[in-house]
Specification:
The structure holds 4 protein chains of 4 kinds.
Chain A: E1 13-17, H1 21-24, H2 26-39, E2 42-47, E3 59-62, H3 68-81, H4 87-93, E4 115-116, E5 121-122, H5 178-187, H6 191-198, H7 202-213, E6 225-229, H8 231-234, H9 239-252, E7 263-265, H10 272-277, E8 284-285, E9 289-290, H11 299-306, H12 325-337, H13 361-369, E10 375-379, H14 383-386, H15 390-399, E11 402-407, H16 424-429, E12 433-438, E13 447-450, E14 455-459, H17 472-490, H18 496-500, H19 513-521, E15 523-524, E16 528-529, E17 536-537, E18 555-556, E19 566-567, E20 570-571, E21 592-593, E22 621-624, E23 629-632, E24 716-721, H20 735-740, E25 745-749, H21 750-756, E26 763-767, E27 772-780, E28 786-788, E29 791-793, E30 795-799, H22 807-810, E31 837-845
Parallel strand pairs in A: 1-2, 1-6, 2-3, 6-7, 10-11, 11-12, 24-30, 25-27
Antiparallel strand pairs in A: 4-5, 8-9, 13-14, 14-21, 15-18, 16-17, 19-20, 22-23, 24-31, 26-27, 26-31, 28-29
Helix pairs in contact in A: 3-6, 3-7, 3-9, 6-7, 13-15
Chain B: E1 8-11, E2 29-34, H1 43-52, E3 78-85, E4 91-98, H2 107-111, E5 118-121, E6 126-128, H3 138-142, E7 149-151, E8 156-158, H4 164-167, H5 174-178, E9 184-188, H6 189-206, E10 213-215, E11 225-229, H7 249-255, H8 257-280
Parallel strand pairs in B: 2-11
Antiparallel strand pairs in B: 1-5, 2-9, 3-4, 5-6, 7-8, 10-11
Chain D: E1 12-14, H1 18-42, H2 47-52, H3 56-81, H4 91-96, H5 98-102, H6 117-141, H7 151-182, H8 186-191, E2 194-196, H9 197-203, H10 205-218
Antiparallel strand pairs in D: 1-2
Helix pairs in contact in D: 1-3, 3-6, 6-7, 9-10
Classes of the chains: A alpha/beta, B alpha+beta, C alpha+beta, D mainly alpha.
């Protein structure tokens, strides 16, 4: 979330799409209801189903799963056509005025310029700003690499760079300025097209578009709208682009950085934010530092690649905070390898494994199936269930040598070898050794968790783990220490990073999470002095924040964005001050939020270019001329002393300092502007460009389990989701939740049920090209048949919560089929998230 | 008599005066259920179940999100769901938290024959005292909302207590505390009524629900659980909320006229035969010297 | 404060003890309030492990943290001071008590041997030693020091670690540190899916 | 009946056989229990009766079971007596003379068979009310099984059960009064079984005459 949960109460307009917060985030959704009650805010719900969120909405539109970009693109078109945009914001805080290189082509035929059909990827050289002085022709010091997908880094061509001095046209009239390109790109997304592709009748779409953009009626900047989404947007082969479209709308309407605005991702798990921050993902290191690639032959090359230089129109300023990247990276290396990380050995940069291709979730299973990955450790992660393509995952595990599962309940992953359908005879042929280790539940562990609003909150242990169960950190520590012992005794392949990994916890086998948290915050390794204030931090002291980090090895910090969370003043994440003087729900004194305890990101954008709040009744930060700095109710997300006349862009994490309507040089791999592509399995050909129906960057695996259905056989669009009564695959072990929703069901429209002669509560089969799911029919009017491109299309939906181990499952009360038996293992090219929403199925009576 | 007994303003099956009637200045508590902000999440159901610590029962899927068809002796709080299609074709998913309404004039208490099995406190809470309950089930019949439920195991009747164990120490009921969207409120009856009316007005003026209103049925003297409904003209849409609930006529007839007629009749009968005896005496059989020889049939 | 509440409670055993006839107590106690079950329980502040709202929860356990008591959860409810949830909880958060008291919890390490059709118990020590042995074996077998282009890559391609999204930042950091230390690249998380 | 020696050798008349007496008291005792516990539930002023009778909960539990016993008794009575309880043409005359009967002017009352019309009323009154009490009582016994949409049954039962009970109470008061205080010898007849010949002749003249005729015929 750019903003926070409580901040939603400050909004005037909510577009909730690709998410169902009433069901999945009820306690956060209270602030949406608060906005409705206290401000008469309006709520628009766009979803394939009429959900419990929709029940509270002022307007509900049923959309075909996977067509969100069309809807949002239509919204952009509507806003532009009806002049419901924030002009000053647009010109000053976004790259609307930037001029794009000649040769850039919009995807009117489904492809942007530079597509290499053989490699299945784009050459990004035309996806760039035009340099004001021809500087873009020189590959100089300005670097901003697109290499989020590392595979390409091994290639010979150097990645394109942003020009330091960008050509621009503040009148937004230049035919190649971003604004004009944007206009052209979305001119195709007319209400008629929206209706044809999404299934939303055009009058309803226009009603919604009018309502949503009404916050900018007559150029008024006071009102604010927010867009709220969840995995209904991410789980597509174009998920990142859906979210980008939303961000673009918010930039167009000037809603980013403002109280009650923003683009708000509602994360689905208590610490999915923290897990991402801490880089439990192959392609990043803690604090969103990019993972090194083989071409990063030394630390310098690596740092040069990942540290951007500023790129902006020359009269403007850009803070370009990521120019500090080397400080973050070196401090991380110091934190990981301690004294072994020295200037002489490039801070042990070689110890870090280099990634050269996609090692993401679906690839793990594919590579395990193909015999590459031989061992797996799964902690608190039910890999078989989470999918996609459960069958493939089970068959991959059959080929593994060993599997370690750390869990609190018996789960499907640890029992993959006796999944339904595997006979005792077949079990005897499965040679995987499985260790199932009893871990600790949430109440048995202390530590911090970071919520969707980036608040890291400390919790305390209430009870000891039951029986022989152990704390998760103790188990991981024990495994690591025993492996290290083996390498110490026996040697082996490149033991240095193992032997030299810093493990300086008082009790190495039982690391105290407080000590870990202090390590994450970072400390001074030598006496440090702030040159301007003269403040001194002594060696060994906790750092007050990331501004103190150094790239010379005199600081260690496990995760720069968490620097400030455990200072000399103690654990900031355990703070419980709940005063909110501004009434905006900022709560500066409650727990701690990254970065630097800021609650609303990009909050400089809540003010006009002169530094005055757009809406004086919702003052977040503002420029104090007398003091010569930015002050406010929140921590300014800005260079504190940059006066408005400097024209520094508010989006300080971008090298341009502005919000990107146009995503240059492949930071988004599948296009600078989002374009609608159909889901991999779709009932129709993409009406925009039938010859390029799907995202051209999507790759399919080749195992026998990677099968895809066609609309002639599988005509029903299916989507998966959670219910408010359950949490993933966890609460099927909790009798209270099982009582609420005891059995799996499939929600099907009344019309489809009538057609098939299915009555509510009857057992039905949902069949995709990959598997069969069985559950009871939930015949409902909350899903209606839709007209898609002249074709009647049904959508059905099924909750994901049941599997083959659980209270009801063990009692034989359901068919014991996981929902992800149905889903395909195809992913978004940017985030590598699988497409669990909007695949094709057929149904029949069981 | 402990002073605390003066907290009682009604006692079931009780002869004579009620210790607390007319004595109290304690404020009346009230739950406000704003169905227009209910998201049917069932947090209230679980909070209730958890706090009261009852056993779990097996449920089955019934083509609805609803946990079970109606409340149960060990499940006092149930969200009732209804997919309602309006005339303009738009859909509403109506969700209403069903629980004891804590009527001002409780039909259960009126019907209960067991002394102090049901009491009403000065703060308005109608509380079942299972220790005194005889399990006759009259309360189930007396209640116009189908709330009290019989436990075959305990052979007694149970219902929501409005968490009087919590309320008596100054806490809010468990369901109120849990409610994520604030669709549940707790406070004095006066304030909840005002809040409800304000919300209903907002719904009428800003959300296009022209029939929005407050449900505080006068037929049972008002309730200590009140609803805000999108459509106060049709409460039945909300899982069968009765339009005009009353303490049933039969219970009233039984409790009042019949009782007086019956009591009078019995007394009249006994007195009548006594007077008859005084006036006419026994029927004596002349010459009968009944010696009391035992018969051997 | 709590003491006076309790006193009120005792007083709240409302009732008149009436005449006793034939040994029967003819007047029932009019009303008896249940004692507040958390009146003196220990209270621990925690965070709900489910969604990313991060609601504050209060866990009530048996005993007042005296040394001779093994704490057991008796009740969970929302933390009213927490600015986000203000004491509220959803149906999952409200059921957390049963997550902790759950008889289905795993309580001992187990192993499933190749070809086995059942679990067997294993000691922690044996399990950890075997896992360490597997880890070393697989790492040694699949470790790549230089790629085809001759670049130093120092990665282990045979082991994957997948983590959930309900564990702490500190645990995640430890995992990343230890697993990157082992050279793992197949390091993924619920966050991806 | 005619086969039994109703005229006893000791010069008395067998009024009720052992079987009849057992059935009477089975019914009577269960009725008394039902009456007392019923009264306890009827009025808060009498709730103490339930407590005295072993506790309020027990009373509620046993009341329906005693009701079944009562119904068994009533059924047996029906089997034993329903033929003798049939209305006869002479009953009208008896009812016409009810004022005399009340004023103990028995010589002006038409003679009665084994059961006079008043007793018949008692019998049928108990019989029909017994059935109605059973039906309404079953509903009250198991209210939890009567679905909400058939709730009117429960409501009707709540009201009608005491109405029927009150009807039996009216009969019961008269029955007890007549059987004990008013008709001397009647109580003995239902305890020991026999009455004097004079009693039989006075109160049930037609029946007595018949006994004499039967006896003569048998000889």
């Amino acid at each position: 979330m750019t903003n926070g949960w409580i901040d939603i109460k400050n909004t005037d307009m909510m577009l909730i799409m690709g998410g169902n917060p009433a069901e999945n985030h009820p306690c956060g959704f209270k602030w949406a209801m608060e906005a409705k009650r206290d401000r008469n805010a309006k709520l628009i719900s766009v979803d394939p189903r009429f959900t419990r969120t929709s029940s509270t909405a002022d307007l509900f539109l049923q959309i075909r799963a996977g067509t969100d970009i069309v809807f949002l693109g239509g919204l952009i078109r509507y806003a532009l056509e009806n002049n419901r945009i924030a002009k000053d914001y647009l010109a000053n805080y976004t790259n609307a005025a930037f001029i794009i290189k000649d040769g850039f082509k919009l995807p009117e035929d489904g492809l942007y310029s530079g597509f290499d059909s053989e490699a299945g990827k784009y050459d990004f050289s035309t996806w760039n700003y035009e340099g004001a002085d021809g500087s873009d022709r020189q590959a100089g010091t300005v670097r901003h690499s697109p290499d989020v997908v590392p595979g390409k880094a091994g290639g010979a061509t150097p990645p394109p760079h942003l020009p330091p001095n960008v050509a621009f046209d503040l009148a937004l009239q230049h035919p190649r300025c971003v604004f004009q390109l944007l206009k052209r790109q979305y001119s195709r997304y007319t209400p008629e097209t929206v209706e044809r592709i999404t299934g939303i009748p055009r009058d309803q779409f226009v009603k919604a578009a009018d309502l949503f953009t009404s916050v900018r009626k007559d150029g008024d900047m006071k009102k604010v709208a927010t867009i709220i989404y969840a995995v209904g947007w991410t789980q597509h082969t174009f998920g990142t682009q859906i979210i980008r479209t939303a961000a673009m709308i918010q930039l167009l309407l000037g809603n980013v950085g403002r109280a009650g605005g923003g683009v708000n991702a509602l994360r689905g798990h208590s610490n999915i934010q923290g897990a991402t921050d801490m880089a439990g993902l192959y392609d990043s290191l803690p604090g969103y530092l990019k993972a090194p690639v083989p071409a990063d032959s030394d630390l310098d090359t690596y740092l040069k690649r990942i540290t951007p230089g500023s790129s902006k129109p020359s009269p403007w300023a850009s803070f370009n905070y990521y120019s500090n990247t080397p400080k973050f990276a070196v401090s991380l290396l110091k934190s990981m390898y301690g004294d072994a990380a020295k200037k002489e050995n490039q801070f042990a940069f070689d110890y870090l494994p280099k990634v050269d291709r996609d090692y993401s979730w679906t690839h793990i299973w594919d590579d395990m199936y193909n015999g590459k990955v031989k061992g797996m450790m799964a902690f608190g992660m039910n890999g078989v269930m989470i999918g996609p393509d459960t069958n493939k995952n089970i068959n991959a595990l059959k080929k593994a040598d060993w599997l370690v599962v750390g869990e609190i309940y018996p789960d499907e992953t640890s029992e993959f070898w006796r999944a339904p359908g595997i006979t005792a005879d077949e079990q005897k042929t499965i040679n995987t050794t499985v260790y199932r280790l009893p871990c600790a539940g949430f109440a048995e562990k202390d530590g911090s968790m970071t919520n969707s609003a980036r608040w890291a909150t400390w919790k305390y242990a209430a009870v000891p783990p039951p029986g022989q169960a152990r704390l998760d950190q103790d188990i991981v520590a024990e495994i690591f220490l025993r492996v290290r012992q083996l390498y110490k005794k026996e040697g082996g392949k490149f033991p240095d990073p193992i032997l030299n990994l810093s493990w300086a916890y008082a009790d190495a086998a039982h690391p105290s999470l407080s000590q870990v948290a202090m390590e994450v915050n970072g400390k001074a390794l030598a006496d440090l002095t702030d040159p301007t204030t003269g403040q001194v931090i002594k060696a060994g002291q906790q750092l007050p924040g990331f501004a103190w980090l150094k790239d010379d090895g005199t600081t260690a910090c496990g995760n720069w964005i968490y620097s400030g969370s455990w200072t000399e003043a103690g654990n900031q994440m355990a703070r419980r001050g709940n005063e909110d003087p501004s009434g905006l729900g900022v709560f500066q004194g409650w727990s701690w939020s990254w970065p630097a305890n800021r609650r609303v990101l990009y909050n400089r954008a809540s003010c006009d270019p002169d530094g005055k709040p757009w809406d004086p009744s919702r003052k977040q930060v503002w420029w104090n001329e007398a003091a010569g700095k930015w002050v406010g109710n929140d921590v300014p997300d800005f260079k504190p002393d940059s006066a408005p006349k400097d024209h520094m862009g508010p989006f300080i994490m971008n090298p341009e300092g502005i919000g990107r309507l146009f995503a240059p040089i492949g930071v988004i791999a599948d296009g600078p502007f989002p374009e609608h592509y159909e889901p991999i399995e779709s009932p129709i050909k993409n009406p925009l460009h039938p010859d390029q129906s799907n995202n051209p960057l999507v790759k399919k695996f080749k195992t026998p389990y990677d099968k895809f259905g066609t609309p002639d056989e599988y005509s029903i669009v299916c989507t998966t989701y959670r219910l408010t009564e359950h949490y993933h695959y966890w609460t099927k072990n909790n009798p209270m939740n099982v009582q609420l929703i005891p059995e799996p069901f499939v929600e099907i429209p009344v019309e489809l049920a009538d057609e098939k002669g299915i009555r509510g509560t009857e057992m039905i089969k949902v069949i995709s090209a990959r598997g069969t799911y069985m559950a009871k029919a939930f015949v409902t009017r909350r899903l209606k048949p839709m007209m898609i491109d002249g074709k009647k299309v049904y959508q059905i939906g099924l909750p994901i919560h049941q599997g083959f181990r659980g209270i009801a499952e063990d009692e034989g009360r359901d068919a014991r089929t996981p929902a992800n038996l149905l889903t395909p293992a195809v992913t978004d090219p940017n985030a590598h998230t699988p497409e669990s929403k909007g695949f094709l199925v057929k149904i029949e009576k069981a | 008599m402990s002073q605390a007994a003066t907290e009682l303003i009604r006692i079931s099956g009780h002869a004579g005066t009620v210790p607390g009637a007319g004595l109290n200045r304690e404020f009346q508590v009230c739950k406000l259920v704003d169905t227009t902000t209910c998201i049917g999440c069932k947090a209230c159901e679980v909070a209730c179940l958890e706090w009261n610590g009852y056993t779990f029962s097996e449920t089955t899927f019934n083509n609805s999100y609803q946990t079970m068809p109606e409340t149960a002796w060990n499940y006092w709080n149930l969200i009732k769901f209804n997919e309602h299609e309006r005339e303009d074709g738009t859909l509403m998913l109506l969700m209403r938290k069903d629980q004891c309404m804590h009527c001002e004039d409780p039909g259960c208490l009126a019907a209960c024959p067991a002394e102090a099995a049901i009491v009403q406190y000065a703060n308005g809470i109608v509380d079942f005292q299972e220790a005194n309950c005889i399990g006759c089930g009259y309360c189930m019949t007396g209640c116009p909302f189908n709330i009290p439920k019989f436990s075959p195991k305990a052979r007694k009747v149970f219902k929501c207590t409005l968490c009087n164990d919590r309320v008596s120490v100054g806490l809010e009921p468990a369901c109120i505390k849990a409610c994520p969207t604030g669709c549940l409120h707790f406070g004095t009856k006066k304030e909840m009524k005002e809040l409800a009316e304000t919300r209903a007005e907002q719904l009428r003026e800003h959300s296009g629900y022209r029939e929005a209103g407050v449900y505080d049925p006068p037929g049972v003297g008002g309730t200590h659980v009140i609803y805000v409904l999108h459509d106060a003209k049709n409460p039945e849409l909300y899982g069968g909320l009765p339009k005009n609930p009353q303490v049933p006529l039969m219970v009233r007839l039984w409790k009042h006229p019949l009782k007086w007629i019956g009591n009078f009749g019995i007394i009249f009968g006994v007195v009548g035969v006594f007077i008859h005896y005084l006036r006419y005496g026994p029927k004596v059989v002349e010459g009968d010297e009944d010696k009391g020889h035992g018969a051997k049939p | 404060m709590q003491e006076s509440r309790r006193d009120f409670f005792k007083a709240a055993t409302v009732g008149m003890v009436g005449a006793t006839v034939f040994g029967f107590d003819l007047k029932p106690a009019y009303a008896q309030l249940k004692e507040l079950k958390i009146a003196r329980a220990a209270e621990t502040r925690s965070t709900c492990p489910y969604c990313a709202v991060g609601c504050g929860v209060l866990i009530y356990t048996i005993g007042d943290r005296a040394k001779n008591v093994t704490p057991q959860v008796i009740h969970v409810e929302g933390d009213p001071d927490h600015p986000t949830n203000r004491g509220t909880l959803c149906p999952k958060g409200s059921s957390l008590e049963q997550d902790m008291l759950n008889p289905r919890r795993l309580t001992k390490p187990q192993v499933r041997r190749p070809g086995a059709t059942e679990w067997q118990d294993i000691s922690w020590d044996d399990a950890l030693n075997e896992i360490a042995r597997w880890t070393k074996k697989t790492r040694d077998e699949t470790f790549v020091e230089k790629d085809a282009n001759g670049h130093t890559v120092n990665r282990c391609e045979g082991i994957s670690f997948i983590g959930g999204c309900t564990d702490t930042n500190e645990f995640n950091y430890l995992v990343v540190k230890a697993m990157r230390g082992l050279g793992l690249v197949y390091l993924e998380n619920q966050a991806r899916v | 009946m005619s086969r039994e020696p109703y005229l006893l050798p000791n010069g008395r008349v067998l009024r009720y056989t052992f079987h009849e007496r057992v059935v009477h008291w089975l019914t009577g005792v269960s009725y008394l229990y039902l009456l007392f516990t019923g009264l306890a539930f009827w009025s808060p002023w009498l709730f103490w009766i339930a407590v005295v009778l072993g506790g309020d909960t027990i009373s509620r539990e046993l009341h329906p079971w005693f009701g079944l016993v009562f119904i068994v008794g009533v059924s047996l009575m029906y089997k034993m007596w329903h033929r003798q309880m049939k209305e006869t043409p002479s009953d009208k005359a008896w009812w016409a003379a009810i004022g005399h009967y009340i004023r103990n002017e028995d010589d002006q009352v038409p003679s009665a068979d084994r059961f006079n019309p008043g007793q018949k009323l008692l019998f049928w009154g108990f019989f029909w009310n017994g059935i109605l009490l059973l039906l309404s009582g079953l509903i009250l016994w198991f209210p939890q099984y009567i679905p909400w949409n058939l709730r009117f049954l429960r409501l009707a039962a709540v009201f009608l059960h005491p109405v029927f009970a009150l009807a039996t109470i009216a009969l019961f008061i008269i029955h007890v009064y007549m059987g004990t205080a008013m008709e001397r010898g009647a109580f003995g007849s239902v305890i020991r079984g026999d009455v004097s010949r004079a009693w039989a002749n006075k109160h049930h003249h037609t029946w007595y005459e018949q006994l004499l005729r039967d006896s003569a015929a048998r000889k």
